[in-house]
Amino acid sequence: MILSGWGNFPRLDACLLRPRNLGDLRLALSRGPLIARGNGRAYGDSAINPAQTIDMRSFNRMCAFDSTSGQLIAEAGVLLADIISVFLPRGWFPAVTPGTKFVTLGGMIAADVHGKNHHCDGSIRNFVDWIEILDGNGNTRKCSREEDPSLFEFTIGGMGLTGVILRAAIRLRPVESGYIAQDLRPAATLSDAIRLFDENPTASYSVAWIDCLARGQKMGRSLVMFGEHATRADLPAERRDKPFSIPARRAKSFPFDAPSFVLNPWSLALFNEAYYRNGRRRAGRSLLDWDAYFYPLDSIHDWNRLYGRKGFAQFQCVLPLASSDLGMRVLLDTISKSGQDSFLAVLKRFGAEGGGLSFPMEGYSLALDFPIHRNTIDLLKRLDSIVLDFGGRFYLAKDARMSADVFSRSEQRRAAFLDTRTKEGWRSHFTSAQSERLGI
Amino acid sequence: MPGSVLILGGRSDIGLATAHVFAAAGHNIQLAARHAQTLSAEQTDLAVRYGVNVDLVEFDALDTAHHEAFAKALPVLPDIVICAVGVLGNQAADEKNLSSAIQVMRSNYEGPAAILSVFADLFEARGSGTIVGISSVAGDRGRATNYIYGSAKAGFTAFLSGLRNRLARKGVHVLTVLPGFVATRMTEQLDLPKALTAEPKEVALAIERAVKGKRNTIYVRPVWALIMLIIRSIPEAIFKRLRL
Questions:
Q1: Residue ranges of chain A with pLDDT lower than 50?
Q2: Which of A309, A315, B122, B155 has its CA at 20 to 30 Å from residue A115's CA atom?
Q3: What is the ipTM of this complex?
Q4: B187 lies in which domain range?
C-alpha cells in the first residue's frame, strides 16, 4: 500500500503489518529488517520501511498508574489523547506534550518530543523512567538510566532504530485544572520576540507564532504566547467545581485534498496580516482550555490535506543560542525572498541539550511548513546550508528529504550512534526509509 | 452506580471496544471468552483507565450444555449482557466443508441464542435487564457470497426480535445491533469501502446510546438502513441473477 507521514510527502509503496501480540511481532522480525510506526504523525519517512512497517497501535494497553508519583506504565501504542482523557480528570497532565495529542507513547519516545516547556523542563526524555524494547533477536530488554543506559539513551530520540519500543514508564505532572492562563504578547520584530523569551525564562510554557512573510522593518514580527497551568483559584467561579471539564469542541474534518492554488503567496499574506492584527488586538491575559492551548490544529482532523495532494514538507531546525538572532534573521530573509511562504511558522526557545540523538539544544528553534512546489526542495537545501553555517541541527521527526551529507555535518553524535547501531546489530534489524537515506 | 455489564465474546474487537465505552461510563465489566485468563492485560487496562472492577470469566459459546451453570456461577448477575460472539467463516471453503459450515452456523446462531435464552429467563425473573445481540446486516438477505454466515445471523436476528416481543412487558429491554462493515480482525483480510466501514469504537458508542435510548434495532451507520432496504426490495427473480 502507499504510505506516507503526516506531510503526505514522500509517498512510498510499503508493506504495513499490524501485529496483535509479541508472537506476531517476532515473526515479522525473523523475516527481515523493519521499522515500528505509531499513529503516523512524523512528517516524513521516519516510520516507513518499504519491506516491513509495523503498525504498533494494537499494543495500546495501560498497565499501571501510581497516583502518588504520577508514574504511568503503558504499551507503546497508547495514544497521548487517551492518556489525557484518562488522567486529566484525576489531576494529571503529560509532563511534555508535542503539538498534537494524536501521537503514540512509543512515537513520542522515539522522536524524543519537546513541548512549549522545553526551556524549563527539557524533552520527554526527562520524564521517562524506563523502556522495554524488543531487540533484534526477539528478546525483550528493559532499559533505564541505571540498567543498560546506552540502549536507554539511544532509544529516546533514536527514531525506532534501536529496537521496537513495547512499553514504557513515564511520569505525568499534577495539575489543578484543565486550563492554561495565557499571556499573549505581540513582538514587532524578531529581536523583540527573542527579548521577550529572554525576559521570561521562568514562564512554564512559551512559544511564538512568527509571520515569516513580513519583510524589512517588520521582519520576524511575532505573537509570543506564555502560559501557566491555571490553579483552581484562577478559574471563574462557575468552573471551580469542575476544573477539569472543558467545553466540548466539535471536531471538524478537512474532507479532501485542497487544490494546490489554495495556499498561495497572496492568501498567506492576507492570513498572516489578519492573524497578527487579531493577535495584537487580543494581547494580554486570557484563560484557554488545554485542548485549545496545546492542540489548536487537532480540532480539524486531517488538516494536512489543506496542502493538497502533493503534500508538504516540514522544516524544523535549532540554532545555538549565540548565533540564534543573526541565524534566524538570515533564514527568514531567505524565505521571504524566495517567494515561498510557510503557513505555520513557530519560534521557540529551547533549554539544555539531552542525550543520545535528541534534537533539542540550547538555543532557538524555528519550525516551518512548505507546500511541495517545484522549487521547495531547492529552498530547503538553501535553508539546510544556512543552518549548518550557524552550527544548528535538524529535527528528524519532521525531516523528509535531508541528505546524508547535511545530516552528518549537522550531527556530531552521528558516528557514535552509527557505531552502536552496528556493534549491537540494530542496523541489520531496524531500518527506515529515513535511516537509509541518512546513512545511519 | 451504573449496572454491571457482561460481554460475551470479550476478546473480539467489538466486544473490547464496548467494554471500554461502558467502563468509561462507570460500569463494572465481566469479560467472557475462551481462555479468559489470557485477557489479563485487557483487564488491567480497563481497571487502570476507568477505575472500575473487571472480572474475567471462562466461556465457550458452543458449550451450550454448560450455559446455565456459567450464568449461575458469575460473580454477579449482570444488568446488561452484550453478545459479541461470532465468526465470519470463509464462504467458498465452507460450502465444500460441511463441518466448518456447521461451526459457522453454531457460532453465530446456536451458541448466542442459547446463552441469551438463559439470561432472558434470569432477567425475566428479576424483572429487569438489557440484552444486546450483535447480529449482522448479512442476515437481512441471503447472498451467494456469505449465506452460511448470513443465514445464521438471520436466525439470530429473528431470535432477538422474538425475545424482544416476549420480554417487552417484563421490564427487559432487547436490542438488536446491525453493525454493517466494521474494521476488525474478523475483516482485516477483506478490502472494505471506507465510507461504509465503522471502527469498533463507533459500534460501541452506538450500542451505549441505543441501550440508554431503549432502542429496538439499530444500524450503526444509518446508510446501511438504506442499503439493506434496497437489497431487501429487489424482487427475487432479479436478485438471484445478481452478483452481490
A1: none
A2: A309
A3: 0.88
A4: 5-239
